[in-house]
Amino acid sequence: MIKVAICGALGRMGQTIGKMVDESDDLELVGGVDVKAGSTFGVEVFPSTEIEKFLEEKKPDVIVDFTIASAAVGNIRAASKHKVALVVGTTGFTPEQRSEINSMIEGNVPAVISSNFSVGVNIFWKLVREAAKRLGDYDIEVIEAHHHFKKDAPSGTANTIIDIIKQEVGDREEMYGRKGMVGERGNEIGVHVIRGGDIVGDHSVLFAGNNEVIELSHRASDRAVFAHGVLRSIRWVYGKSPAVYSMNDVLNL
Ligand SMILES: NC(=O)C1=CN([C@@H]2O[C@H](COP(=O)(O)OP(=O)(O)OC[C@H]3O[C@@H](n4cnc5c(N)ncnc54)[C@H](OP(=O)(O)O)[C@@H]3O)[C@@H](O)[C@H]2O)C=CC1
Ligand SMILES: O=C(O)C1=N[C@H](C(=O)O)C[C@H](O)C1
What we know:
Elements: E1 2-7, H1 12-22, E2 27-34, E3 38-40, E4 43-47, H2 51-58, E5 62-65, H3 69-81, E6 85-88, H4 95-105, E7 110-113, H5 119-134, E8 139-146, H6 156-169, E9 173-176, E10 188-195, E11 201-209, E12 212-220, H7 224-237, E13 243-245, H8 247-251
Parallel strand pairs: 1-2, 1-5, 2-4, 5-6, 6-7, 7-13, 8-10, 9-10
Antiparallel strand pairs: 3-4, 8-11, 11-12
Bound molecules: NADPH dihydro-nicotinamide-adenine-dinucleotide phosphate and the ligand O=C(O)C1=N[C@H](C(=O)O)C[C@H](O)C1.
Main location: cytoplasm
Binding site for NAD(+): 8-13, 34, 89-91, 114-117
EC number: 1.17.1.8
């Protein structure tokens, strides 16, 4: 049995992952950490101020983090110190936070970090790369939509899309929405963020040329798609050599 702990255990993703871990035969949910203490699926949730005590008492094999960027940095530091493998889905990191995370992990613990654990999105990213490779002279716009509770914008997945496009077409300015006399469209990637209701997670990329538009889209209708990828990652990462891994490694893409 792989002993699993969840940071952000009482949140939307924490609950979805906790349920799936609890129902699986080869994984054992040993507890969680959240802002406030509590319980989930019959195990104790410690307050985030007591993460060190939690790790010493519960000794998880893998820690899953779905919190917020500022909190995740501290949780990753604690996991690295205690040599616990990581699966990190939290988004909204600054470049500085990402490099701090990488240096905490490298040579210390194995960690899968992804802005989107859905298998479909990981294939979608491949399709976006392929299109960008061939349609670099088309106008490119990225659109994402999420529920009204989401704190970071644009989504981590949209940021990954923008990175992929730039890797293929070269650096471009990101244009976040447009208003007023915007003038002729420049060598930019338009980025549009929608927040509303209970939208789980929609991402589209438009490649617009003369007399034609190619639109690639992915729509998640249940958080279970992310949680399935998280469970695959937990099973994959346990026992691996210390390094930062992506879902490409987990899915062998
Ligand atoms: N990679 C992927 O596939 C996916 C990534 N995400 C990302 O996961 C993150 C969480 O999303 P979601 O579950 O919807 O958000 P929620 O707000 O529902 O859950 C986050 C939880 O973390 C808690 N939290 C805040 N600070 C700490 C801390 N220091 N230690 C422990 N827990 C803490 C929050 O408490 P409180 O509410 O009291 O602040 C909350 O319970 C986001 O960054 C989101 O973008 C989401 C879905 C898929
Ligand atoms: O906050 C969410 O809900 C989601 N966050 C991730 C992101 O920021 O890309 C993944 C997914 O779209 C859901």
